[in-house]
Design a protein that fits this description.
mainly alpha; 434 Repressor (Amino-terminal Domain); 0% strand; globular
Length: 80
């Protein structure tokens, strides 16, 4: 899952979020426990997030993606 610095993806389905987070957590060798402590969640909360079994607060998602080395960006949609 190693990506270059220009990686960008459109999250048009909540199911994509968990898969991406899990892959990048593993790539960066961060344990679920470490990610949970940083984000203020339990390890089970991270498991549920990675398995798309729970919704997450935006503030928590920002913390999680920050630790994984990403910024959460909103971008105006171009006409498709």
């Amino acid at each position: 899952m190693d990506r270059d610095n220009n990686f960008e993806t459109i999250l048009d389905d909540v199911k994509n979020v968990g898969e991406l987070l899990k892959g990048y957590r593993k790539e960066r060798k961060i344990t679920q426990e470490e990610l949970a402590n940083f984000a203020g969640l339990s390890r089970i909360g991270i498991v549920k997030l990675e398995n798309n079994e729970s919704d997450v607060k935006l503030s928590t998602l920002i913390k999680v993606v920050s630790l994984l080395g990403f910024d959460l960006v909103l971008k105006k949609r171009t006409t498709r």
